[in-house]
Automatic annotation (TrEMBL):
<dbReference type="Pfam" id="PF00107">
    <property type="entry name" value="ADH_zinc_N"/>
</dbReference>
<dbReference type="InterPro" id="IPR050129">
    <property type="entry name" value="Zn_alcohol_dh"/>
</dbReference>
<keyword id="KW-0560">Oxidoreductase</keyword>
<dbReference type="InterPro" id="IPR036291">
    <property type="entry name" value="NAD(P)-bd_dom_sf"/>
</dbReference>
<feature type="domain" description="Alcohol dehydrogenase-like N-terminal">
    <location>
        <begin position="25"/>
        <end position="134"/>
    </location>
</feature>
<dbReference type="Pfam" id="PF08240">
    <property type="entry name" value="ADH_N"/>
</dbReference>
<dbReference type="InterPro" id="IPR011032">
    <property type="entry name" value="GroES-like_sf"/>
</dbReference>
<dbReference type="InterPro" id="IPR013149">
    <property type="entry name" value="ADH-like_C"/>
</dbReference>
<protein>
    <submittedName>
        <fullName>2-desacetyl-2-hydroxyethyl bacteriochlorophyllide A dehydrogenase</fullName>
    </submittedName>
</protein>
<dbReference type="InterPro" id="IPR013154">
    <property type="entry name" value="ADH-like_N"/>
</dbReference>
<feature type="domain" description="Alcohol dehydrogenase-like C-terminal">
    <location>
        <begin position="172"/>
        <end position="301"/>
    </location>
</feature>
Length: 343
């Protein structure tokens, strides 16, 4: 099969490689579209500590089920359009038993610890595979994985109907968290972002997101105005930068919740005094639990806000132009989701 292989950092090439050989209870999927994630870019640049070349990257995808290897009954049919949660845990540890295999100590993420979806075919555990309706645009279905990240983040925050939300960072995951927060009943969703094009993009979503631009606004006074001097019930720090870490403790209300979503390139300082004095709850989140991936499949399958999701797909490349797509993802600061089309 053909695949995009990172042979060494900053060098990805199309190659003929062996088709994956199925083990028991595994499925083979022919990939239709794959999304480029920030993690894929970090791997390509050599900034990911766990991913080592040679490696087929990619973990966001949609495709067709072509083969299964099991003697069990499965509620899937060959030829169906499917997605799959792109990670596995050991299945035996305390965390896996709790349904938290996303933080298993033996976590295997496709495209990082093992070969991913920038290829003609990918093999996955059958228990991770979900069918999707034929009448849903496959490009939108390719967004299930990043939507699952947002579903996981919002669910872990225990956001209640009527609460106020601040999202620090208006990139793809930030926008998806904002959409899910609205779906979950947040009364006010505010996004902090400095990129003017991303600000306009969020405003043009017509989902009544309110914006803060820390480069132009008096942030403290605007937060007070938006929250009646209370601060936000839930703050999602998605930027992964020091300025975001500084803002999150200021913006959260007394007794509020902070969700650490963005992955920083280096450790940041946090105002632990504010955490103590305001009795803040802080929680880290990583990828998504399978129950939240399943919820994302359901949201897209039911066409709840697919018209909004489609707007996130700003660029598309053929898989043969994968190097160009990766370089574009690095250099262009205004795009949202870049898709690779498998021919």
């Amino acid at each position: 099969m053909k695949a995009a292989v990172i042979e060494e950092f900053n060098n990805i090439v199309m190659k003929e490689v062996l088709e994956p050989e199925l083990g028991y209870d595994e499925a083979l999927i022919k990939v239709e579209y794959a999304g480029i994630c920030g993690t894929d870019v970090h791997i390509y640049q050599g900034h990911h500590k766990q991913a080592k070349p040679p490696l087929i990257p990619g973990h966001e995808f949609v495709g067709r089920l072509v083969k299964v290897n099991t003697d069990k009954h499965v509620n899937l049919k060959i030829g169906q359009r499917v997605v799959a949660q792109p990670l596995t845990g050991c299945g035996k540890c305390e965390l896996c038993i709790q349904g938290r295999d996303n933080v298993c100590v033996d976590l295997n993420i496709f495209g990082i610890h093992s070969n991913g979806c920038f290829a003609e075919y990918i093999k996955v555990p059958l228990r991770k595979v979900y069918s999707v309706p034929e009448d849903i645009d496959p490009k939108i279905v390719a967004l299930v994985e990043p939507l699952a990240v947002a579903m996981h983040d919002v669910r872990r925050s225990n956001l209640d109907v009527g609460q106020t939300v601040l999202i620090i960072g208006g990139g793809p995951i930030g926008i998806l968290i904002a959409m899910v927060a609205k779906l979950n009943g947040a009364s006010k969703v505010v996004i902090s972002e400095i990129n003017e094009k991303r600000i306009k993009f969020a405003e043009d979503m017509n989902m009544r997101f309110e914006m803060i631009n820390p480069l132009k606004d008096d942030v403290d006074s605007k937060i007070n105005k938006l929250t009646n001097n209370m601060g936000f019930d839930v703050v999602y720090e998605v930027s992964g930068v020091q300025a975001g870490a500084d803002l999150m403790t200021k913006a959260a209300k007394i007794g509020g919740t902070i969700m650490m979503v963005g992955i920083p390139s280096k450790s940041h300082t946090v105002d632990t005094g504010a955490v103590t004095l305001k009795e803040l709850k802080m929680e880290g989140v990583r990828i998504h639990a399978q129950i939240n991936f399943a919820a994302a499949v359901d949201v897209i399958s039911k066409n709840i806000f697919n018209d909004k999701l489609k707007r996130l797909i700003t660029d598309e490349f053929d898989i043969e132009n994968v190097k160009e797509a990766m370089e574009f993802s690095i250099k262009d600061k205004d795009h949202f989701k870049v898709l690779l089309k498998m021919n």
